[in-house]
Amino acid sequence: MTALVSVRDVHRRFGSGPATVHALRGVSFDVEAGSMVALVGRSGSGKTTLLNVVGGLDRPDEGTVVVDGDEVTGLDEDGLSRLRRERVSYVFQTFGLIPVLSAAENVGAPLRLARTPAADREQRVALLLELVGLSGHAAQRPSEMSGGQQQRVAIARALAASPRLLIADEPTGQLDAETGRSVMALLRAVVESEGVTALVSTHDPVMMALADRVIRISDGQVDA
Amino acid sequence: MRTGLHGASIRGRIRADAGPLLLSALVVLLVSLLAGAVPGLMEKTADEAVRDAVQRAGNSAKITVSARWEPDDTLNGRARLPRLADDVNDLRLRALDELGSELQAMMRPPVAAVISPTLKVTDGSVLRTFRMAYLAAGDGPQVTWTAGTAPAAPADDTAEVGWYAPPWRVQVGVSETAADLFGVRAGALLKVADERGNTKNVQVSGIFRPVDPADPVWAEAPWLLNPAADADGAGTTRFGGLLTAGSLPDARLAFGPDELERTVVFSPDTTVLTWSAARTVNATVVSLQARSASSNAVDTTTTWRTGLDSVLDEVTAQVETAEVHASVLLAAILAGAVLVLLLAADLLVRRRSPALILARQRGAALTALGAELLAESALVALAAAGAGCAAALLVTGGVAWLWVAPVLVTAVAAVPAYGILHAASATRDRKTPANRSARRWARHTGALRRAAAEIAVLVAAAAAIVALHQRGLGSGLPVLAPTLAVIAGAVLLVRLLPPVTHLALRWSLRSRRPLAVFGTAQASATSGRALPVAALVTSTALASFALVTAATVDHGLAGGAQETVGADVRADLTDDAAATTDETARRIAAAPGVTGVVTGHVTDSAQIVADGRLVPARLVIVDSRALTGTALTGAQALVRSAGDALHEGSIVDILQPGKPAVRLTASGAAPAVGGATEVVIVDVTAGLPAPPNTIWVTGPGATQATDGLTVVSRTEVARSRRAAPLVAGLLRLTWAAAAFLLLTGLLGFALTAAAGAPGRWLTVSRLRTLGLTPRQGRLIAAGELLPVATVAAVGGPLLGALVAAMTTGPLGLRVLTGQVTDPATVLPWAVLAAVVALFLSAVPLLVRVEAALRRRLRLAEVLRVGGPT
Ligand SMILES: Nc1ncnc2c1ncn2[C@@H]1O[C@H](COP(=O)(O)OP(=O)(O)O)[C@@H](O)[C@H]1O
Ligand SMILES: [Mg+2]
Fold it and tell me: Where is the ABC3 transporter permease C-terminal domain (chain B) (predicted)?
């Protein structure tokens, strides 16, 4: 199998002078296409920073990131926008839904940006909502849904434009254990059914068990 | 500190939230300066206006007292009364006494004058006229005799003159200037005759030079010093003969028993006349005139005549109108200021929300939180108000606290009030009710409360407008009418906006443009906030109202000047010059650049009976086709009336002394003629004697063509009215109010944008993780601001224009524009379009600024747990 993501010697520092925080110190690893990788580490170990760099939301000070054959670290703003529109999607701890749009419209948002024809869009939104078990909640606004439901909508949205890579940063962090577990199971299931590669940071042992591979990170470095 | 308030923390927070605080301070400062200074400035301007009006009125503002002479007839003729000058002086003292001390203080020392009728000089080809005058004021006027001697009494100073004796010799002095001009020498006999051709025996006893030509006494007969051109008709030159106490009795004998009038003239002292004194002066003047002897009394009782009361009446009406207008504008300014202060407070509390909630959760009492916020806002507000009031004090010497108070109270109380409400509601134990009906009930009561407030605003606005239309502009409710009407309109627009943006969202969801969807989604999410929309619409609408008012006054001034003059230039000719009017008119008509010349006879206060009622009116006898474009028959008249005394169909009788009245039928409406309220226009064929005394000239060359005549020009009238203190002051205040309200509108918009910015850019960031480019993100941010901006930019000016159209009539602007009727509302389209452009262009500008402020904030940070702050 080929690597969909390859990270080479990535450094990321915050601040300057004596207050400099060296959040990533030479991180390197590969993620195989179609696999689900759990990124594990204590709070403050650099998980979020790493995911942001991989997904092109942040730039490393040193090192390269290649996603699906494109060097993310070399892309300009428009290139990054296209990458996010077409190949990489995110699921955040705080869900990140658009509050004024219904669940269905939130899921359909990436398809609108991709200018998918309306009929196809509606069909795919319906399919995805069914996939995440929220067919009956299509018209609800995020504020009218529980946290678990919101995260399911977020997962459906992340899958909408059929990305190659799904990045999830502690997707269950704001959910209770029970709900978190079901969201994890859902994530695992959709990775299978949609054929997407997933990079998920987590504290949750259940997630680790579900993952194809676990990368441990501490103090900005990947544990051997 | 013992109170537990930490000075340091207040200072720290002030620094952290410098933006909204500075902004509030700026608004408080500007308003306390404007509102504090305007009433004082108004008072000063009113004083100036009174002086200006009196000065402009010239002779008609003077008070003239006259009394008949003691009879001088004897059995065989008339007796020379040697003490005549003493009689004149007696009259002067008597008038001074009757005037009363209060009025004396407002008047310059009285001048007694005896002025002869106009005589024609019969010796030459040039048109020269001659008058004799005796002037007395205390010990003036002083002259020195450069040749000959002062006029003196004949040896027999108690002579008797028989009825048929030859003309009695009068000695006069002639000024050096006149003597040089006409080659008159001491001892010369002047060849003069009255208009009936009776020659007079006038001898120049000496040539004099005034000790002080600027002595105000000379103003009563300036031609005594310098010959006056055109005083008695075009091409004439009038010069004068000075009488002395010695020769005054001879002058009386030279004319018919009552041809020589003795008068005492009081000129208002414009250096001491004030607005507050004007009312008492007016009352006294009216009563003096009322007590006057009727014109056919045979005794020597004084007769008082003056136009001062009507001058003061007019200026009083103007000052009152201007004062009320200033109040209307100040009310608008206060409304704009209060709303923008509320927006600033709202923003401040939003920014402090986390800290407030934290403090509350840690157990801080609401009162303690409130006190701390109060201390801070009081510090800022009082400092700003202090600076503003100090400036107002410097400018006007006083501060109108009543106007400053509302803004100060808002500035001090808004933040603590909002803060307490916010902290209380955010940390209240009582959560949203669990059961559905309770939730609905809570929602309903909220909606009911809001609806009740809105209805209250609408009712107040309606009441104010009705009061304005019924009672006219006075103090109280009508002054608030424009502001309340605008607020009511803003409330309606606030209600209208959410459904409109909601519709737009529904429509855009069906469109294929993703940006439209996200933009309208953001817009519909935020358009429900009532305060920003209300504040912005109110500001732009009131600014537009002020701009429309300014344009209306401006336009009205031009219209008023047209009404007053009736053409580009009007030449008013004295009766003596009327004989040459037609020739003059022909000469003018032949001049280049003159497109129209109309001559007519104008009589003020003609005795006219309309439908059996006496209606003094301005009578204009004219070639009706030339003046109005339609020919009247000899039995028709055009009429114009402020009330209903003259109307179409009225039977109009024009009374003539010693002749039967001419009866006409009013067949239509007359144009305004010279600002008179009652006008009757009659054709020359109606059979009324009409030596033309007025020439109306139109065309670009009108001014040149009438050079040398006494003329009133339209542009000159408009210019001088615009420069009059009240009008100029009010226009300045109107512009200042418009500028201030536009400023509060823009500040309000910036505050609104700042309050929504965190949420807006969080959404933009979220959308950017879905692949939106930075530019598309800015477009969506702009889309969110656009509805509010559009409502303010378009709805505001429309609302302002509508309110102006509803209120300009009752606002009584005609008093200021000099028009007969109230001016029609004038919409300055270009200026209003500029307002629209200003607010619409603020959107991309604000978005650029917001984006620039967030450029250093990376997406990665925005989306970290907790989101951006
Ligand atoms: N914007 C920033 N400025 C300074 N330090 C930062 C910033 N973002 C992250 N850090 C620091 O980098 C380290 C890694 O943080 P993060 O990637 O969020 O860890 P994790 O997601 O594993 O909890 C932490 O020490 C954190 O304090
Ligand atoms: Mg993290």
Answer: 736-843
